[in-house]
Write a structure and sequence with these properties.
Elements (H helix, E strand, L loop, with lengths): L3 H30 L5 H13 L2 H12 L4 H4 L9 H25 L3 H9 L4 H29 L3 H7 L9 H10 L3 H24 L4 H13 L2 H7 L1
Helix pairs in contact: 1-5, 1-7, 1-9, 2-5, 3-8, 5-7, 5-8, 6-7, 7-10, 9-10
Length: about 240
C-alpha cells in the first residue's frame, strides 16, 4: 500500500488544525462575549460548510482562490491545485465544528468568576488565560478534535480546489476513491481501515472530554477565595 497519501493527509491536517485552533478560538470568543449588528448572519455563514454540498463549497473556494480572485490578480499567489489549497479546504470544513463547541464552552463559563478575577487586579488577558480558557478547555479541545477529524476526512472541496494529483495533492480520501475506481481493493481496504481507526479514536476522545463543569467551577471559586498575596506567590 502506498503511504504517501497518509503522510500528506497528516501534514495537511496538522497545518489545518493550527489554523482551526487560532481562528476558531478567536471567533468563538467574539461570538460568545460580543453582540453586534448582523451577528446572526455571520453565525449562519460560519455554519454554512456543515450543510452545503462539498461541490458547492468547492466551487465557492474556486471563486475565492482561482483565476480572477484577488489572490491571483493582486498578489500572484497560485493556490489552486497545490497542497495549500487542500489545507484551506480542510480548514474551512473543520472550523464550524470548532467554533460551535468552543463558543458553547466559553459562554458556559460563570461570569462571576471572571469578575472576581478582575476585582483582584487581573488584566483581561490574564483573566482569559487563567479563568476563561481553562474552564472552557474541554469544549475547546472537543471542538478541535472534531474539526481536525473533519479536516482529515475532507474529500469533495479538496478535489475541487486541490485536484487529485498523486504525490502532490492526493490525500487519503482521494486515494481511496482512486483505488476503488481502479479496483485496487486491497489498497482501499488498508486506507479505509486507517481512517476508520483514526475517526473512532477522535470520537472516543471527544466523549472523554465531556465537561464536568460543576467540579471545575468549584475549583475556580476556591482559587478566587484564596488571598491575593498567596495567589501571587503560588503563580
Amino acid at each position: 500500500m502506498n503511504w504517501a497519501p497518509l503522510l500528506l493527509s497528516i501534514q495537511v491536517t496538522a497545518i489545518a488544525t493550527v489554523l482551526i485552533l487560532v481562528i476558531g478560538v478567536g471567533a468563538a470568543l467574539v461570538l460568545a462575549r460580543c453582540t453586534f449588528p448582523g451577528q446572526r448572519i455571520v453565525e449562519t455563514l460560519i455554519n454554512l460548510p456543515l450543510v452545503l454540498p462539498p461541490s458547492v463549497l468547492g466551487f465557492y473556494l474556486l471563486l475565492g482562490l482561482g483565476r480572477g480572485s484577488p489572490l491571483v490578480d493582486w498578489f500572484g499567489w497560485q493556490v489552486v491545485f497545490t497542497p495549500a489549497a487542500a489545507v484551506i479546504a480542510s480548514t474551512v470544513v473543520g472550523l464550524p465544528l470548532m467554533i460551535q463547541s468552543a463558543r458553547a464552552a466559553i459562554a458556559g463559563v460563570d461570569p462571576s468568576l471572571e469578575r472576581a478575577a478582575r476585582t483582584l487586579g487581573d488584566s483581561e488577558p490574564r483573566v482569559l488565560w487563567r479563568i476563561t480558557l481553562p474552564l472552557a478547555r474541554r469544549g475547546i479541545l472537543a471542538g478541535l478534535v472534531l474539526g481536525s477529524a473533519r479536516a482529515l476526512g475532507e474529500f469533495g472541496a479538496t478535489l475541487m480546489v486541490a485536484g487529485n494529483l498523486p504525490g502532490r495533492t492526493q490525500t487519503m480520501p482521494l486515494a481511496i476513491y482512486d483505488a476503488v475506481q481502479a479496483r485496487r481493493y486491497e489498497d482501499a481496504n488498508g486506507l479505509v481501515a486507517v481512517l476508520t481507526v483514526l475517526a473512532f479514536a477522535c470520537l472516543w476522545w471527544v466523549r472523554q472530554l465531556e465537561p464536568a463543569r460543576p467540579a471545575e467551577q468549584s475549583e475556580a471559586r476556591r482559587e478566587m477565595d484564596r488571598p491575593a498575596a498567596y495567589r501571587s506567590e503560588a503563580g
